[in-house]
Structures are given as C-alpha cells and as structure tokens.
Write a structure and sequence with these properties.
Blueprint: E1 3-6, H1 22-34, E2 37-41, E3 44-47, E4 50-53, E5 56-60, E6 63-67, E7 71-74, E8 78-88, E9 94-103, E10 114-123, E11 126-132
Antiparallel strand pairs: 1-6, 2-5, 3-4, 4-7, 5-6, 8-9, 8-10, 10-11
C-alpha cells in the first residue's frame, strides 16, 4: 500500500506527487478551510472479523493524503480505533503516513496529525458495532 502526501519537501510517496492538478489543489483548499477531513473513500466492509477499508483521500494538517490500496486487518474481540497518522522526521517534515488499527477501550485517538476513520466493536465472531468517524474529523 502506498501513500501520497501533498505538499511535501522530501518526496514522500515519489516524484509524481509534485505535479499540481486541479484535484490536488481542490483537496488542499478544502483541507485548509476544514482542518482534518475525509475527502473521499475510506469505506468499511466486514466479513466476520476480517475488515477492509477502501482506498481514499483525506486531509491532515493541510496535507492531502491518499491511500491507493485497501487496508485490511483481522480483529479479535474488543474495541478498535482505525485512523491515519502522519509520521514526522527529526526536522518536523512528513516522513510517512501510517494506517493504524489500535485495539483499546480508550476513546478514538485525537490530535493534529491524526485522521480518525472508524471505531469498531467486535464480539461473537463479527463486527457488532461500527461508528463512522469520517464525518467527525
């Protein structure tokens, strides 16, 4: 799975991200106005305890973040938070983006470098509850 980050000072995701397109600028402008948000995608599908989050695009701290392949995970029983997080280098530049599926009874992680996607509860061999956090961002 590859991620793209725009704008970038250290080519996270490759040189192709350096091209300015109407879509990139539209997403960037939306991010500047709305803060962290989902622009498209990141839909959830479940089969028993196996989950899949579809490819999508979002904005984190004014950066457009695209996930080009589905994120998959196998859950056990309990609460899960699924989110994207910017990872920074020592100079504070974006080094990468990580998709996280964290099992915890704690609330959804929050912070300026986090884009919450889904909060799930797994029990009885299925995902029993799914809360869509994409609209809360």
């Amino acid at each position: 799975m590859a991620f793209k980050v725009f704008p970038s000072v250290n080519s996270v995701g490759g040189s192709s991200q350096k091209y300015i397109t109407e879509r990139t600028m539209s997403g960037w402008a939306h991010a500047m106005a709305a803060g962290n948000c989902v622009l498209e995608g990141y839909d959830l599908s479940c089969a028993g305890l196996a989950i899949s989050i579809s490819p999508g695009a979002g904005a984190i701290r004014g950066y457009r973040v695209e996930m080009d392949a589905a994120y998959t995970a196998d859950l056990a029983s309990g609460w899960y938070s699924i989110y994207l997080q910017l990872e920074r280098d020592g100079a504070g530049n974006i080094a990468s983006v990580a998709a996280a599926c964290e099992q915890s009874d704690d609330p959804m992680p929050q912070g300026p470098d986090i884009l919450p996607l889904w909060r799930l509860y797994a029990a009885g061999g299925v995902v029993a509850q799914a809360y869509d956090w994409r609209a809360h961002s």
